[in-house]
Design a protein that fits this description.
By secondary structure, this protein is an alpha/beta fold. Helix 10 links the parallel strand 13 and strand 14. Helix 1 packs across helix 8 and helix 10 packs across helix 11.
């Protein structure tokens, strides 16, 4: 069993708590670690260490700061497979999915290494005779990430490298459900040799979160998780005068037109809906067929769902792993039951799944619910599991109206061979991430990532130029000599 400790001021610090929660391998049900439920004391230690480190880190030239990130990138690449195995063991996704997750993490580090170019300011000469005006970017100070369980290796890197490269110091609170991945990554961060206090890690649950939200030294906070929690974090952090990026829930629709390539469409929708067991914020969870697309797509997606190989993510040939734990399995199966009671038809039913050799695992096979009604609980609720709900409309206009009526707006995709329909969809849809013949519209690291409406709370999104704007203050200086 792994011992989970904190990393503060470049030292591994034993938790000052007697409260722990068990971390289980979701495929085997075996307890593999225990997360300490740290709180205000440990957060204060980390915040003070980061605050003390900030002045000298800020004064470190940006071209010197990014040398640490180059070293971190190299260590992440050298340990790619080992990190991915840890992700699979504690998170449940397949080894291939875990490796792909870390590719995106490394990509963000590489983009942040271009910070000498990205954080440059602006100058206007002679705004009045003999007077010049300059805009400078300056770091905020101590920043923090409250990370989710579903991408324990990738999501912290939507934020961390940009914050460090712009001159801020940092605290990460991993999800209490998956602490082992970030512990391993911090062993690499230790090897990089950042100055004392520049990067810190505190483990815990709600008490640690509240301490981060309230600590006066912490200037900016990022979060990914449910909409309910995102609202809470956004409100409480904002009341304390902090900058916030709070990514919330999703109910991502895909619209299938009759002119779509149905074989390609069904393959990509299945990969999106059932990849990572549906536990990702960009997973397709609602398929809306238009006019004659209904029959052919339904047949193909049901075949793709029923033939998907489910099992332990480290075993060869497995296409989908378990959900995160037994509580999630129970919740997902209850929501499938709710959908059936509301009139939806379970064309493929993944409840009651048992995998030979892994009888204690939290497995739910891919599920297809047809004839879901607008306004029903199953239509409104983010299931966060391998469940695809299906609806049918008569026109692309009806599909867009239905999509825009939902409380979430994280991702929406369209499958078609019509450029006119694609442009109309791109122009009218209200979602932060839009896909055209794409099942997972995940932006590259040099583009911003974030949803709209109930899927995002804040002004500046993750990654790209938005990250530089989020982690810097703009200082305007007017000079006459």
């Amino acid at each position: 069993m792994k011992q989970i400790v904190n990393y503060i001021n470049n030292e591994w610090i034993d938790p000052k708590t007697s409260e722990y929660i068990e971390v289980t391998n979701p495929a085997t049900g075996q307890v593999i670690a225990k997360t300490p439920l740290c709180g205000e004391t440990e957060v204060d230690m980390a915040a003070k260490a980061a605050a003390k480190a900030f002045p000298s880190w800020r004064q470190t030239p940006v071209q010197d700061r990014i040398q640490y990130l180059f070293r971190l990138r190299d260590l992440l690449k050298e340990n790619h497979d080992e990190i991915s195995r840890v992700i699979t063991k504690e998170c449940g996704k397949t080894f291939g999915e875990s490796k792909a997750e870390m590719v995106r993490a490394i990509e963000n580090v590489e983009v942040a290494c271009g910070m000498p170019m990205m954080m440059k300011g602006d100058v206007s000469e002679d705004i009045s005779p003999g007077i010049d005006e300059i805009m400078l970017r300056q770091p905020l100070g101590v920043c923090a990430t409250i990370a989710p369980f579903n991408f324990p290796g990738m999501i912290p890197f939507w934020y961390l490298p940009y914050a460090l490269a712009t001159g801020n110091t940092y605290i990460i609170k991993p999800s209490e459900k998956v602490p082992m991945t970030m512990k391993f990554i911090f062993s690499l961060i230790e090897q990089v040799g950042f100055p004392n206090g520049v990067v810190n890690m505190v483990n815990g649950a709600k008490n640690a979160v509240d301490a981060i939200l309230d600590h006066p030294a912490i200037r900016a906070i990022t979060f990914v998780g449910s909409t309910q929690t995102a609202k809470y974090i956004y409100r409480r952090a904002a009341e304390n005068g902090k900058r916030v990026q709070a990514q919330g829930g999703a109910k991502n629709p895909v619209i299938i037109l009759p002119d779509a390539d149905m074989e390609m469409t069904s393959t990509m929708v299945a990969d999106s809906a059932f990849g990572c067991a549906g536990q990702r914020c960009l997973a397709v969870s609602l398929a809306i067929t238009v006019a004659d697309a209904r029959n052919s797509f339904t047949e193909m997606i049901c075949d793709a769902a029923s033939t998907r190989t489910v099992g332990y993510g480290l075993d060869d040939g497995v296409q989908m792993g378990p959900v995160i734990n037994s509580h999630s399995k129970e919740r997902v199966e209850q929501l499938i039951e709710t959908g059936s009671k509301e009139g939806a038809s379970a064309l493929v039913d993944g409840r009651g799944t048992t995998i030979n050799g892994y009888e204690e695992g939290a497995f739910v096979r891919p599920t297809i619910l047809a004839d879901v009604e607008p306004g029903s609980d199953i239509w409104k609720t983010e299931i966060f599991g391998p469940v695809l709900s299906m609806m049918h409309v008569n026109s692309v206009e009806d599909a867009i109206e239905l999509t825009n009526s939902h409380i979430y707006g994280n991702q929406a995709s369209l499958f078609t061979s019509s450029g006119r329909a694609a442009r109309k969809f791109r122009y009218e849809i209200d979602a932060g991430n839009v896909g055209i013949n794409i099942g997972v519209a995940a932006p590259m690291a040099f583009f911003p990532f974030g949803g709209s409406r109930g899927s995002f709370y804040g002004d500046l999104k993750a990654q790209g130029q938005d990250a530089i704007d989020f982690y810097t203050d703009k200082r305007v200086v007017i000079t006459r000599w």
